Every structure is written in C-alpha cells, then in structure tokens.
Amino acid sequence: MRVMRFPVLLFVGAFFAACGMSELDVDEDVAYVDHDPGVITSGLTAGEAGGCSTAIVGGLDRQLIEELNCISPNLMQSFAGPHTRYGATVVPYLHPTANAALKRATTAANDFMTINSAYRTVAQQFVLYRWWQQGRCGIQVAAAPGASNHQSGRALDVQSYTFWRPYLQNQGWQWHGASDVVHYDYFAAPALGGRSVLAFQRLWNKNRSNKLAEDGVWGPASNAAMSSSPVEGFTNHGCAAPPAPETGTLKGIVHQGMSMTAVIAGAKVEVGGKTLTTDAAGLYTVTLPTGMHAIKVTATGYEDGALTRQVAGGQTVWGSVGLTPKGMPDAVAPDLDVATPVDGARTDVALIALTGTTSDMSGAVTLTLAQNGEAPVGVTVMGTLFEQQVKLRPGLNELVLTARDVAGNVATVRTTARFRAGLEGEVTTPDLRADGIANVQLSLRDLNTGAVLMSGISAADGTYAFEVDTVPYPAKLVAEAPGYVTFERDLIIGADAREVYSFALSRGEGTTQEPQPAPNEEDMHIKGGCSVAGGFPIGLLALALLRAGRPSRLVWGTRRRR
Questions:
Q1: Are strands 345-347 and 410-419 parallel, antiparallel or unpaired?
Q2: Residue (of 429, 447, 530) closest to 484 by Cα position
Q3: Which residues of 396-418 are buried (b: 16+ CB within 10 A; e: fewer)?
Q4: Of 20, 135, 446, 479, which sits with the fewest C-beta atoms within 10 Å of its C-beta?
Q5: Are the C-beta atoms of residues 342 and 312 closer than 8 Å to each other?
Q6: Can you tell me the distance from the alpha carbon of 269 to that of 548, in angstroms, rounded to the nearest whole number?
Q7: 351-388: pLDDT as tens digits
Q8: pLDDT digits (tens, 9 = 90+) for 499-536
Q9: Helices 122-133 and 58-71: crossing angle, nearest 10°?
Q10: b/e for 260-288, b at 16 or more Cβ within 10 A?
Q11: Which residue has the higher pLDDT, 53 or 102?
C-alpha cells in the first residue's frame, strides 16, 4: 500500500483561515517545500535557525527525548514499527501507555498508519513559534513552547483519520472533533508538557553556569536559553552523572602477618610505575589514574606481598598488605576485596554483578559465595579478578565471600544489597502542566476479593511507592482523590526489576477502568493542532483552481489505496 496525494493547490490564506486560534499542525515534510531549508553550521543556535523545517533542531530533539527518560526511566517510547509510517521531522515517541494503545489499534487493523505529528519537543516548538512571530513560513498561528498539546506525549495527528477513528477509539483514544479532524488524544496517559520544559531546563543546567530554575515552566529565562542553545545539541547529556575525576587515591598500611598493629616501616611499595616507602606508621599514600592497579610490596626479612585494587576517580581506596616473616609458616590470609556492590547498596533490579579481587603470594585462591545463608557456590577467579552474576530476592540480601589459600588461610568479606522490588510512579493532573497530585489515596488490592493488601498516599509532588517482599505480585492499583475520578489498573509486579507506572487522574466523579491489555506490556516499564477539514470555502476554492488548470498540490489531505 502507498500513500497517494491529491493534486490540489495549497492556498495558504484560505488554509489558515480555517485554523482559528488553534496551533499550527501540518505535515512538515511537505508543507514548506517553497522555502529554502535551513543549513546547520557549526555553532548555529536555535535562535539563528532558518529554513522552515524543524529537522534543523534534530540534535537537540534527540537529547531532549533522552533527558525525558532521565527524569523517569522509559517515560517516552518509540512507536516505530511495521504498522507506522512518518516523515523525517516527526519525533516518533509517546508516553508508554499511549504507545501501547496505539500499537493495539494498528495491530487490530493489521494496516499501517501514516502519522503527521506526534511528540514535539520544546526545541521544535520554539523554532515554529519564532518563525510565526517573524511572519515566516506561512505559519498563521503557533503555540508557545510547553503549551502545545503535542508536548503532552499523548497526542497524534494521522492521515486517513476516518479509517483509523474506530480502531483508535476502541483503544481509548479520543477524537478531537470536526475542528481538528486528524487529531487524537489518549487522556489515560499523563500529560508531559511541564516535563518537556523541565527536560530542557535540566539539559541546559548540565552544560551552562547560568542555571535555570527547574520548575517545568516556560518563561523569559528558558526562552533566552533556548535561543542560545546549539541546534546540534550539548556536550554533556544523558542520564549518567558528570564525568568523575580522572585520578583517585590509594593508601594502605603494610603490617606483619594478620596483626594491623605490627606495622612495617620502610617497606617498598611499587604501583602504577611509582615506588613508595612506608612511613613510621607503615602507611603509604599515592595518587593514581582510575582503573585496576597491581601492587607489589617488599621488605627486608619478609616474603613479598601483592594485591590488586580498582582505583575510582575522586575516591580513596584502601590496600593494606600483611607480610610473612621469612622462614615462618604462611599465616597471612589471602587478600579479598569486593568492588560491587558496596555494602548496604539499594538496587531497583534483581540481577547484579558481584565483582572484586582476590590474591595470595603463596599461590592460587579458592573463592566461594554463600547467599542468604544458602550452601556456598564456587566463584571463578581470573588472575586476581572475579565477577559473579547474582539474582537478589526482594528485600535485604546477605552475600558472604570466602577466599582460601593453599596454606589453608581464610579471608571472609560480608556485604549486603537490598532489591527494592515493588511499584513506584507519579499521579498527575490531566492538563498540559501535568502537576503532581498530593494526598491521593493509593492501594494495592487482591484481584479476586478486592481486599486491600497495602496502602499509602502520594507525596507533595505526586510520587508514590510500594515495596513488596514476594514476586511476582499480581494486584489491582486503585487511586482515589476528592474531585477526581477513581482510577483502577490491574498489574503484575515482576521479579526482575522495580516497576514504574505513572498516570493521570481525570477530574470528576465515578470510577474509570483503563483499557486492560495483558499485564506487564509496554505501559509497564522497568525503571491542539489545527488541520483543514475540507471546509466548504476551501473546497470551492480548490475546485475553482482545478478547473482553471493551475498546477496544484495538497499538503493536508491524503487517501490510502487499499
């Protein structure tokens, strides 16, 4: 199947007369063919962006989507797939619940949907709004950044809107109506307009010293910052913390045997191409590049000692060494150090990597792991390094590593890690600001009896959290607040990761049950435009131009060949 375009001339004045005061929403791939495209040059800012295609801020677009998913993991999902088609300027992302509803609709139709507009970043909206202010590109009216419903993450403009209407409505999408026939909204998903602004504010603050208030509100400061933002994107972006320092500190005490008080002064320590001598307290200290370092220790009258340590940027790592006097039996336990997880670590995923180092001057080391008091299992040591995948149970887990050398000396290290199995998210208002709603009564209830299994209230920012001690955990999530429709959702809290589920409450009374796909599908995740409705005046104009034999092109109407 192909999309065919009718040969009708675009008449800009009549086109926008039908738009009223709603925002611009046209097929940007073809709407601006009469204008020179903007050219991306090094150092070009959004305030300098020319042309009439929002593709010019594509670099910023990608980083802003990335930043949204830093605010909340998987907050936006791509709807790319075999049932969707869209142009180069369409940002193919929706909130997961809206994305799941779209996929259910296209799967039910078993046909492809051509999408003219979906999510629009504040960078795109900024240039559209600026071009409208300058009277460029034939834009009759445009919304300010953050105010467009296409920044909500739950809006679509589709071609063949009549064909798709029953399929979309059956999955909870609401048709905007005759004033905007191509537009659909999925109000069961939270609106992300304020978060779209917040994403830019956080991205800016990662890269500039003149910080913006991270309030999700578009004001003069955010507008000025966007104007000076590079269209290709910023240097620092993504969810990772700022780069750590490139060096760290290694220090330790050289001592006799297992006694930390019998220190050895004047011992020679070789590490990272440097040679050090311990002081009167047996202490050595050295600054090293981040990474793994082998340490060799020698002292007159003692057998040599060695160990390995991972040096982290900006941190201090200890590497104390016990030496055996020459001629004496080996009484020094193997060196054993756990790098990850740190003791007391809290994690939102069940599968973690237990890593570290172990070594002994007398030979090979045998290493075992006992988890939560169960029978020990062997851990493979490669040289001095070990890594073991460990699946945590919900709640606190105790990991006990035991290293034994050939002389029978034993070293034991105990560390704990807590898997926060459960559910968390945010309850928001249904408008574009999507403000968090405080004091919402939330409960997890038995799917069969409706009995309350656990309950709580949302915080001042609308966030909520439940922690469970058994998985999988099937339950019905119920949210109640005065002045809002009661929200219900069947779900399953899984065994692999803490689930994240955010939703909007509709204003009113009664109970609403969101359309029920199979539990744990795309909407459960691990951590206004205007269009031409073929109005009578435009129809007459198009017909007259066709009869006059003038060349023509339609950019707002399409027909699918079935």
A1: parallel
A2: 429
A3: ebebbbbbbbebebebeeebebb
A4: 135
A5: no
A6: 93
A7: 999 999 999 987 889 999 999 999 999 999 998 999 99
A8: 888 888 988 877 665 544 433 333 444 443 333 333 33
A9: 140
A10: eeebbeebbbebbeeebebeeebebebeb
A11: 102
Return d(Cα 163, Cα 175) in angstroms, integer.
Answer: 12
Phi, psi torsion values for 414, nearest 5 degrees: -110, 135
Structure-token pair, residue 164: 């798709």
Q: Are strands 410-419 and 377-379 parallel, antiparallel or unpaired?
A: unpaired
Q: Give the start-to-end residue ranges of the domains of the chain.
A: 19-227, 244-330, 333-420, 423-526
Q: Is 510 left (phi over 0), alpha (psi -120 to 50) or beta?
A: left
CATH superfamily for 333-420 is Immunoglobulins (2.60.40.10)
Beta-carbon contacts of 539 under 8 Å, excluding residues fewer than 6 positions away, are none
Residues 324/306, Cβ–Cβ less than 8 Å: no
Return all residues near 11 (Cβ < 8 A) that are at least 6 apart: 538, 541, 542, 545
| Residues listed for the chain | 562
Q: Kind of pairing, strands 3-5 and 558-560?
A: antiparallel
Query: Which residues have CB under 8 Å from 32's CB, separation 6+?
Result: 51, 52, 53, 137, 138
pLDDT at site 512: 65
In the numeric block, the tokens 């900024």 are attached to 126
β-bridge pairing 283-289 and 247-256: antiparallel
**Which long-range contacts does 48-56 make (Cβ < 8 Å, 24+ apart)?**
49/127, 49/231, 52/131, 52/136, 52/137, 53/28, 53/89, 54/28, 54/89, 54/120, 54/124, 54/127, 54/128, 55/28, 55/88, 55/89, 56/127, 56/231
Give the separation between CA 23 and CA 4, rounded to whole angstroms: 26
Beta-sheet pairing, 84-86 with 511-513 = unpaired
> With left for phi above 0 and alpha for psi between -120 and 50, is residue 450 left, alpha or beta?
left
Q: Residues near 256 by Cβ (< 8 Å), separated by ≥ 6?
A: 262, 263, 264, 302, 322, 323, 325
Gap between the Cα atoms of 190 and 502, Å rounded = 7
| Cα 381 off chain centre by | 34
Q: Is the pLDDT of residue 537 over 80?
A: no
* pLDDT over 90 percentage in the chain: 57
The token duo for 307 is: 């160990």
Mean pLDDT to the nearest integer, 477-494: 94
Amino acid sitting at position 276: L
Domains 333-420 and 423-526 share a fold: yes
In CATH, what number does 423-526 get?
A: 2.60.40.1120
CATH of 19-227, one of 3.30.43.10, 3.30.310.10, 3.40.640.10, 3.30.1380.10: 3.30.1380.10
* 244-330 CATH fold: Immunoglobulin-like (2.60.40)
Task: Enumerate residues 6+ apart whose C-beta is below 8 A from 170.
Answer: 105, 108
Which amino acid is located at 275 in the chain? T
